[in-house]
Amino acid sequence: MMKVVFASRQLMNCYEQSDTAMRKWGRNVGRKYIARVQALYAANKLSDLFTIRSLGLHELKGGREGQYAVILQGRWRLVVVPEGEDMVRVEEVTHHYGD
User: Fold this and answer.
1) CATH number for the domain whose boundaries are 3-98
2) Closest CA to 96 of 78, 79, 75, 80
3) pLDDT tens for residues 23-32?
4) Predicted confidence band at 85 (pLDDT cuts at 50, 70, 90)?
5) 79: phi > 0 → left, psi -120 to 50 → alpha, else beta; which?
6) Which of 40, 42, 76, 89 fits a 20 to 30 Å CA distance from 2?
């Protein structure tokens, strides 16, 4: 089981309290956020998640090199940063391309 840490208390609260996540990002994105964090916890290491196509896990480029994104819904992404082989930091939820 992978260790998951959160870049902020707000991200942690959104995971632990579904109503907080849904208020922040809407019902669908809030639910997907919680499900994606659960998938992080369930994996043994980040590379295991590449085999789950529905996650759309991909490495980011440019100024975000070393970060990875998971699809939440539409252009919404969950950005994570590996902190070793079996640990990941939930960095942010972003609306890809700022649309």
Assistant:
1) 3.30.2310.20
2) 75
3) 999 999 999 9
4) confident
5) beta
6) 76
Closest to 49 measured CA to CA, from 18, 14, 78: 78
| pTM for the structure as a whole | 0.92
User: What is the full DSSP assignment across the chain?
Assistant: --EEEESSHHHHHHHH-HHHHHHHH-HHHHHHHHHHHHHHHH-SSGGGGGG-GGG--EE--GGGTT-EEEEEETTEEEEEEE-STTEEEEEEEEEGGG-
β-bridge pairing 3-6 and 87-95: parallel
Only one residue has tokens 């089981």, namely 1
Give the domain ranges of the chain: 3-98
Question: How far is 49 from 88, CA to CA, in rounded Å?
Answer: 12
Q: How far apart are CA 28 and CA 31, in angstroms?
A: 5
- Identity at 51, one-letter amino acid code: T
Per-residue pLDDT, averaged over 48-72, amounts to: 93
Which residues are within 8 A (CB) of 65 and not within 5 positions of it... i.e. 6 or more apart? 59
